[in-house]
Amino acid sequence: MPHLAIAVVVGAYAWWVSGLEHFTAPALLAVMAAAAVAVGSAWWQGPRRPSGPTGRAASGPWLVVLGALLTWELLAFSLSPRSTHPTLSSITDAALGPRPLEAAAFVVWMASGRRLVRR
Question: pTM of this prediction?
Answer without folding.
Answer: 0.65
